[in-house]
Amino acid sequence: MHHDRPVGELLREWRHRRKLSQLDLAIQAEVSTRHISFVETGRTIPSSSMVLHLAEHLGVPLRERNRLLVAAGHAPVFRQRPLEDADLAGAREALQQVIRGHEPYPALVVDRRWNLLFANAAADVFLNGVGPKLLRPPVNMMRLGLHPDGFASRLRNLRQVRAFMLPRLARQAARTGDPELSALYEELLSYGTEGDDGPPPDPTDIALPIRISHRGADLCFLNTITTFGAAFDITLEEIAVEAYFPADAETARFFHGRNTASSE
């Protein structure tokens, strides 16, 4: 298991993941290269404050910082509670308000592995008509988007979406060191065929347009992802809100028209 390994080995792995030399890290963290070397080889067991100091400069996610602390023989300091926890009732309500406030356009809340936590009513544009197996909890939005039985068949620019989403997922898996994200990436990669992916998006584009057919309408969205810098709480740090905005007048009219009809 990841947390059974020595803290020095884990820190060295994170340093390599960030493509830093011992000297780079020593300069950034303002500690001696010798101390970094001693920690990584196990000659020195770092204090909890030193573990957190190095982890901060390595950009280690909060969940993994707890593992580093435990590996060094210290108590974890970051809280991890299920989103259903009574103490997170305020956060749940705030998230619901955010996605309800985005109506009539789609918005949803996902966890660190892109599993769906909440969605507003307009998000049915993505859930409509997908295979029943993909709607069994946990519903994974990455899988839902690229699986042949998901809404991939309704994506009019599937190649471009794959070319945008797969590298993003690969970077996320590398950044977090999460083996489940790596497995998800390999799974999604297998859905395409060689030469299937389109050209990478223009780096000057503010966002990738998502073009989808829905109930006879051709819709086009831009999406944004919002995360929360919630210090000391793993659950909240790992949550993201995906909000979809109409990228053209026809899409805006579709949702406003549907909203008007539903309120009559």
TrEMBL record:
Residues 11-65 form the HTH cro/C1-type domain. Pfam families: HTH_31, MLTR_LBD. It comes from the Bacteria. InterPro entries: Cro/C1-type_HTH (IPR001387), Lambda_DNA-bd_dom_sf (IPR010982), MLTR_LBD (IPR041413). Gene3D superfamilies: 3.30.450.180, lambda repressor-like DNA-binding domains. This is Helix-turn-helix transcriptional regulator. It comes from Actinomadura vinacea.
